[in-house]
Design a protein that fits this description.
Length: about 375
């Protein structure tokens, strides 16, 4: 039997896709899934009913294409974000991955570059690659933080057309001070760089952590992207969105596929936003479990990156691959993000978190 990759490579596939394997964390069926930063709390019963009712209404009109402008949804998203934003400032797509893809299609492409700061969200280079955009990397300090001056000078020196700032950063969990965003924005002036602050995990930040939404007024090259996949517990519905100057949304209209947001998706998201308080009620509980993980791991003597998100990156492991496998054998799936000595775990429910902490402690106790 020939290797599927070998067979694929016999096709006249684009050169920059040759040899690549598709993105994807392992989807393994075990009792406790703490590997892809999902919200492990289900959608509350009454919100579920509201979504089902809204979807039923949408089904009645499925013979027609959906509202191409998803106006009602954009209005709800603007209201949710606040900060004086209106529907004109909002764009949405099937997950923030697609939102980011739209940005690359409109502002990247052959002969242009995007700059990211690894370790960061692993889709940035893949989205750059699939849109023919060059991908450049800048540096972080040893605690994975970005220093405003260094980062800004890397942005200026590379002349990148698109800059990815992830805050809180996946996989490290740390949020960025706004000073970094504003200095990066100013440093991108010469190249007219589009600066994207990916705030997929913003709702899990410690109170008082500011959002880059505050910086939007007067900055027409700044984009803040968000998702309903995490705090809203709607990863399966696929709805990501961004806030930016209205002309950015106009640029993205040029590259989206017509009717890209189905009537079902729009109805689901609007119903969820109508009940946002109930859906977000679990955020505080998730933050408590996140903080439990931080103190539990610290108590085990493992170095932990401070986290403003629903996951925690921890180090101090001689053989992270073996720890990952042992946890899996114990029914707990977490993520090996490829950083030497480190693993990443998503905050679960109280019980899931307890099982993870106990399993890990029993694994590492003999070695500390
Ligand atoms: N940005 C970051 C930093 C993420 O971690 C993720 C998902 N893991 C996404 C964007 C994409 O999420 P979605 O497409 O579900 O909105």
């Amino acid at each position: 039997m020939t290797d599927p990759l070998e067979r694929l490579n016999r096709l006249p596939i684009r050169e920059n896709l040759r040899g690549l394997r598709p993105y994807g964390a392992p989807q393994i069926d075990v009792p406790i899934l703490l590997n892809v930063n999902e919200n492990t709390h289900g959608v509350p019963e009454d919100v579920r009913s509201a979504i089902v009712e809204a979807v039923e209404g949408a089904v009645a009109g499925l013979n027609r294409y959906p509202d191409r402008e998803f106006t009602v949804l954009r209005e709800h998203l603007a209201t949710y974000l606040g900060h004086g934003l209106t529907a004109d400032n909002i764009w949405a797509a099937n997950g923030s991955n697609e939102v980011l893809q739209h940005v690359l299609l409109a502002f990247g492409g052959p002969g242009r570059t995007a700059l990211g700061f690894p370790p960061t969200y692993s889709m940035y280079p893949l989205l750059a690659g699939s849109t023919g955009t060059g991908y450049l990397t800048g540096s972080r300090d040893e605690s994975f933080d970005l220093d405003a001056r260094t980062t800004a000078s890397e942005v200026a020196a590379t002349g990148a057309n698109i800059v990815f700032l992830c805050s809180p950063n996946n996989p490290t969990g740390t949020a960025l001070p706004l000073e970094v965003v504003s200095e990066v924005y100013d440093a991108g002036e010469a190249a007219q760089a589009i600066v994207i602050v990916d705030e997929a995990y913003a709702e899990f930040s410690h109170s008082g952590t500011p959002s880059a939404l505050e910086l939007l007024p007067g900055r027409e090259r700044l984009i803040v992207s968000r998702t309903m996949s995490k705090a809203f517990a709607l990863a399966g519905a696929r709805l990501g969105y961004l806030a930016a100057a209205p002309e950015i949304a106009d640029a993205l209209r040029l590259v989206r596929l017509p009717y890209h947001l189905s009537a079902i998706t729009q109805a689901t998201a609007v119903a969820a936003l109508t009940h946002s308080a109930k859906l977000l009620a679990n955020v505080d509980e998730i933050k408590r479990q996140r903080d439990r993980i931080v103190s539990g791991l610290t108590g085990m003597g493992l170095p932990v990156a401070p986290s403003d998100s629903n996951f925690v990156l921890f180090g101090g492991l001689d053989d992270p691959g073996a720890v990952w496998q042992d946890l899996l054998d114990a029914g707990v799936l977490i993520r090996d993000v490829g950083i030497p000595g480190h693993l990443r775990v998503t905050a679960g429910t109280q019980e899931e978190t307890t099982t993870f902490l106990k399993a890990l402690e029993s694994l590492i106790r003999p070695r500390v």
